């Protein structure tokens, strides 16, 4: 019988001690792995949506809010800006591409955004069926919207005012679904896109002569744009914000909380290794007859060493495996919550590079925690142990 | 099979040295080592089994030096050539009766053979205990299983430490004949160490250990 197999039987023979060690390790590994998985999803998601957008032009207010609302579509917009003013920036020689966005209403909490065909094109969105939006009140829906609302081509619907799921439904003008985008993995999946004129059309009743938009996504031609534009806008109700910088600031603020969580997880992992260590030591005391017996049956001391080491490694391995499964369950649950609340899809279960490091480190520390009791198995005096005195 | 010469042993911190008579035991033969408590019979058994290293003197096993081997080599040689029945039965508790026997074969380097294990348990009237947990055995059953474990790998030498001291006359006879039958079956030499005077009349070849001065 191989030492590894006997070790597994021995470990299973002590379900309580083994269970405690495995449980602790599973939680430690699980939390860290969950953090790694979420971090990957978020960074990928954040980066994918920033995609070459250097600047965002919008109403003055919190720059972070401006970015969150207009790049990620998770916060409320900072306000509206007059199109005539925005055009000056859009035509600035330092700017190579400008995509106007006008926040309209929502349909079942999915946002209706008035824009130009350059917006879906920017994210590489392709029509899965139907035709692009052209005339006012024609809408092309994202893949997530199609799945969640069941809207399909030819359907008409009324929008709800603003971003709330209120009863304030605009009954006068109905939107018609003319197309549906294939899944892009970007914000487009969560939106209903329509020509800007539709948004103006809905709000005609509000006394407002000027044509207004919410924001413009800008791509710079010249790096000087970042320095020049803020100056240019100083005396206007507008501002530009840099998505890369704002998101960095946000993740850094996240970071403090994440660091605390990581410290707690490392502490739990540390406890689990102490528990492996204690479980093995205690079991050795109780099993010294068994170990001495194995020697008399032909197992050299080194074999006892590997037996105890394997016992520790089995516990570590079980803990790691349970932890990785736990973190994936966590991702599925969190993914459900995030996609319900923010229409964000973070459910990616493939291993992250950091997890390989985590597993290797856990195995190493597990081997060390088991190595010390294993060494003491080397020193058992079989004659004294089995002879019961002289 | 077994030959000892001028074995002496001194315990650490002890003034006196234990001196033991020379032993010679061929395959298929049996020997009774009789002595009262304190005569060092268990010490002698452990020296023979290579579980202790003699202060002076030597143990030869099957014509090859044994007591002078390095620890790991001694462990392996013991596993292959000896089967030991201890005074108290100990087992690997996470394994079943059958697996404990299979483990003894595997540690001795014998190929796995379920039929040998089953046959032996049948012979000892324990066939139904093959898959039982060792903790669930009665004391008598434990002793029979430990005899089975000592012979399951067909060793050349079977050592038994006080196998009958806790038993009544009837069971003493049963255990003795069991040991003899198993030794005979594999042609092994049998060395029994005991203070049990009842065995004196039942075995002709014997060495008596005297209390050391």
Topology:
The complex is a heterodimer of chains A (390) and B (213).
Chain A: H1 3-13, H2 15-50, E1 55-59, H3 63-72, E2 81-82, H4 83-90, E3 95-107, E4 110-115, H5 118-122, E5 127-130, E6 138-141, H6 143-149, E7 156-157, E8 175-181, E9 191-195, H7 196-202, E10 212-213, E11 215-220, H8 225-232, E12 238-241, H9 243-286, H10 288-296, H11 301-342, H12 353-378, H13 382-387
Parallel strand pairs in A: 4-9, 6-8
Antiparallel strand pairs in A: 1-11, 1-12, 2-10, 3-4, 3-11, 5-8, 6-9, 7-8
Helix pairs in contact in A: 1-11, 2-9, 2-11, 2-12, 3-9, 9-11, 9-12, 11-12
Chain B: E1 2-9, E2 18-19, E3 24-25, E4 30-35, H1 41-48, E5 56-61, E6 64-65, H2 71-81, E7 82-85, H3 97-107, H4 114-123, H5 139-151, E8 157-161, H6 169-186, E9 189-194, E10 206-209
Parallel strand pairs in B: 4-9, 4-10, 7-8, 8-9
Antiparallel strand pairs in B: 1-2, 1-3, 1-5, 5-6
Helix pairs in contact in B: 3-5, 5-6
Describe this structure in words.
The complex is a heterodimer of chains A (390) and B (213). Chain A is 56% helix and 15% strand. By secondary structure, chain A is α+β, with helices and mostly antiparallel strands. Chain A has two domains: 177 residues, no CATH class; 187 residues, no CATH class. In chain A, α2 crosses α11. The longest helix of chain A has 44 residues. The model of chain A has no long low-confidence stretch (mean pLDDT 86). Chain B has 213 residues and is an alpha/beta fold. Chain B is globular. The mean pLDDT of chain B is 89. The interface between A and B is medium-sized, with 26 and 35 residues.
